[in-house]
Amino acid sequence: MEQEKNDKKPSLNKKIIPSIIVAVIIIAVAWYLFADSSDSASDNNNSFVSDSNTSITDNTNDIVNDNVNIAKVENNDPDAIKRDEERVVEIKDIREKLDSFNTDKGNYPENLEELVTEGYYSDLPVNPTPGGIDYVYTPIGSLPAKFYDLAYTLEAGTDELEAGEHIANPDSIAFP
Fold first, then answer.
1. CA dist., res. 87 & res. 143, Å (int)
2. I want to staple 127 with a disulfide (CB 3.0 to 4.6 A). Which of 29, 83, 132, 173 is the partner?
3. According to the model, what pLDDT value does residue 55 have?
4. Rounded CA gap, 95 and 99, in Å?
5. pLDDT tens for each residue of 54-73
6. Is 170 helix (H, G, I), strand (E, B) or coil?
7. SS (H, E, C) 56-120
8. Closest by alpha carbon to 137, among 102, 96, 94, 82?
9. SS3 category, 24
10. Per-residue pLDDT tens digits for 132-168
11. Is residue 17 pLDDT above 50, yes or no?
């Protein structure tokens, strides 16, 4: 009789152990697939954010650009807001220096570095975002220039300007 009980235990163990191993494998595979899909979803979100920092010039992408700007308006990061406020102050200051240069010389400089060489700045202002896109100055028309564009990007926006790409010129701080 004892021998019959001992015979039943090994056969029961032979069924339970493989079942447990199979269950563990199924759980491990499901966990791996779930973790992999959430990583790729995170990568997709990151690529959307990085796309918002690129210049969109194709008219077919205007809708995407509008959506990116809407998403940026909701950026309540206090550091981004502070950098944007600093950025707007710098753009206003650069516009004033460009206007002074134009008043003194009769035209706008060929590049922003002329503001340093002519004594309007000791150093040019730089984008306050580490690794951020530099301000882009473009004299308009034949040289000596009588007009300019100064491009910059706001991360979160300010009270007066929305997040996104802007162009300052002699007439305005923001031309969308």
1. 28
2. 132
3. 39
4. 6
5. 333 344 344 344 444 444 44
6. coil
7. CCCHHHHHHHHHHHHHHHCCCCHHHHHHHHHHHHHHHHHHHHHHHHHHHHCCECCCCHHHHHCCC
8. 94
9. helix
10. 788 999 999 888 889 999 999 888 888 888 888 899 9
11. yes
